[in-house]
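Example (one chain per record):
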Amino acid sequence: MKILVSDSLSEEGLKILKEVKEFKVDVNTGLKPEQLKEVIKDYDALLVRSATKVTKDIIAAAKNLKVIGRAGVGLDNVDLEAATQKGIIVMNTPGGNTISTAEHAMSLLLSMSRNIPQASASLKKGEWQRNKFMGVELYQKTLGIVGLGRIGREVAKRAIAFGMKVLAFDPFLSKEVAASLKVEVVELETLFKKSDFITVHVPGGAETKHLISDKEFALMKNGVKVINCARGGIIDEAALAKAVKSGKVSAAALDVFEKEPPPPDLELFSLDKVIVTPHLGASTEEAQVNVAVEVAEVVRDALLGRGIRNAANYPSVEAETYRILKPYIELAEKMGEFACQLIEGRLQEVKIIYSGDIIQQDIAPIAMALVKGLLTPILRDSVNYINAITLAKERGIKLEEVRLAQEEEFVNLITLDIKTDKGGYSVSGTLSSNKKPRIVKIEGYYVETAPAGSMLVTYNLDKPGIIGNLGALLGKYNINIAAMTFGREKQGGKAITVLNVDSPISEEILEKIKKLENILSVKVIKL
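Predicted structure:
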């Protein structure tokens, strides 16, 4: 089997692959897209870091490719959908950079609090200005951590060792687990208001783009200090520059940028109170070795049939079983993603109820897919089929699976019951006659909708004019309704309307929908 390594990989990782007699390993870095497209047809596996862009065209040209291994967490340089459609397993290394990135965040926090880069530059110019670089202690200050996953937890441990109080926002972390970490879980707005330092450790993507912008800076303490070692774009760079110049933010430290490499004239670069590094979070000798070894091991084991780990798009099952389960796996993942965006509050308990012929199968991959879908809108690339249940349990989310032997309303039905600190929620799904996912019940309301694309879920009173008003408003903004379904508890009572639309619904439109007569609440779902 032939393996292509198209980005730099530590020798320790290459050695693992080269020691397997069945493998022929070629290291060919710096390939241009057309060159990669030409050579990829001969390879069974491709190993990349972040430089190689594995696009749809390159995947289409891959005749023998079985595995893509990404040495790192983010998969934004791999077309996951194209790989999945072609049956190529995509694996990443979510744990390899953890300590390195956490330590870099702490390094920036310390450098920022004591003005170390600025003081060093001043002294090297022959100046001796001790008063100019007066710093602050970390002791007894409050650090707000947005996202308490692997990296966030390691940052919390180190901050606590410095005598800091740690607040955390993470919708998938229970208060019990947080207490065991000596961390207080709070809502995001509370974190912004109470923190002296704020550091972000959430995935990138549309859900977290500009998570911190003008409105959020306005909530923060005067003189707050902020850090981003996660993904560029989580902090709005233009808003940050304004906040620094106004004095609202007394210091900032960035390792990642909205565009990388950033333009030389980026306004933040001209501000003395801003410390910047060129995406060094994973740039330690140990981290480079860790991700290289991890990606080499998972690719080796997958090619040799020893099992699949850290798969971003495949559960580990036998081929024939997977053929039967595949449509249910797709349904479960979509249900999870849908439910995550529907619910309010912090996840506490998840119950998955199966009924019908499906209970005769090995349903473990379905649960993995459903929990992956449930966590994906928040955790993004760091969650996959293999680690989803572990991540849920780490966050104190209780999982329960129930098989119902008795016949239900549908030949096969999967029901997801969720309990949060703000209430209970329920979503049920099945397959259509052509094996396509369908959601058939939401909160006890009977519906039939395809969980795909942009969706609008409204809770409303069952009164005349609801559909007309919605249609007129969406039409005004040139948003076409692709499908529509309704459910109600009784005539004139509470009802639900679910729309599939052809275009995304902006915040502006959402606010106008909320103001329509007889609308009780609205949710936008993106699948």
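Caption: The CA atoms of residues 50 and 77 lie 6 Å apart.
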